[in-house]
Write a structure and sequence with these properties.
The protein has a single domain, classed as Rossmann fold (3-Layer(aba) Sandwich), CATH 3.40.50.880. The protein is α/β, with parallel strands linked by helices. A nine-stranded mixed beta sheet has the order 2-1-3-4-9-8-7-5-6, with helices on both faces. The two termini are 24 Å apart. The chain has helices at residues 23-34, 50-53, 86-102, 111-119, 155-160, 219-233; strands spanning 5-9, 38-42, 59-62, 106-109, 144-150, 164-169, 185-189, 195-199, 206-209.
Length: 242
């Protein structure tokens, strides 16, 4: 049986050829391969419409990265909002909506978790005061860590088997409890009440997490997420009306 083809989004770097996968994104590819999937590199420089990019994919991973343009949710930029990449925003939001419409398994990580909420019509908190969730050294160093509280009966709970997990933290924006988009359900929270997990009861496999389960520092604790995601991607979606 062929491995399910998993699209993995990323930014492109002007310092590298677009054919190269920067180190930052290699761990996503590694986790998908370990789980039995075949990674497919997706980035804004591919001159193909999202409707064609998603053809032939069995699942989609939306990765971490820079801030989403707040104009996408009707706000002006906060002074701490930086690194806006409008082409990546447009690509990922289009792919998220297409994946949801086609009921493709969708795993949204860190920025991807935030992009999922924006794609579904929700806003973001542009900056967490006190910077207690950003990685050290201004966001470029070692991860911070904190517990996440997981909703009983959620997909996260079923896969991880715990109501509290230790997660890494590398973000300064967030989904808030009062900003969860319609159709999404919060299923994990940080101790200070920020939404760290999103799921959809209307889709066969849709999960957003604010932390980075792909990183080596926590991969063993969260490998079940990638394995279940790829397992779902290997199962063909039911045809409309079935």
């Amino acid at each position: 049986m062929d491995r399910p083809r998993i699209g993995i989004t990323r930014s492109i770097s002007p310092k590298r050829a677009v054919e190269d996968i920067p180190f930052t994104y290699q761990s996503y590819h590694a986790r998908v391969r370990e789980a039995g999937g075949e990674p497919v590199d997706l980035h804004p420089a591919i001159a193909v419409p999202p409707e064609r990019l998603i053809e032939g994919l069995d699942g989609l991973v939306i990765c971490g990265g820079p801030d989403i343009n707040p104009a996408r949710y009707g706000q002006t930029p906060h002074p701490e909002t930086t690194g806006i990449d409008d082409e990546r925003d447009a690509l990922e939001i289009a792919l998220i909506r297409l994946a949801m419409a086609r009921d493709l398994p969708l795993f949204a990580i860190c920025r991807g978790h935030q992009a999922l909420n924006v794609a579904c019509g929700g806003p973001l908190l542009q900056h967490i005061e006190g910077d207690g969730h950003r990685a050290l050294d201004g966001g470029t160093g070692a991860s911070r860590f904190h517990d996440v509280i997981i909703a009983e009966g959620s997909r996260l709970h079923r896969l991880l088997g715990v109501r509290r997990a230790r997660a890494n933290s590398r973000h300064h924006q967030a989904v808030t409890a009062d900003g969860v988009a319609a159709g999404l359900v919060p299923t994990a929270w940080s101790p200070d009440g920020l939404v760290e997990g999103l799921e959809s009861p209307s889709h066969r496999w849709l999960l957003g997490v604010q932390w980075h389960p792909e990183r080596d520092e926590v991969k063993d604790a969260f490998q079940a997420l990638f394995h279940d995601f790829v397992r779902a991607a290997a199962v063909q979606a039911p045809a409309a009306g079935d």
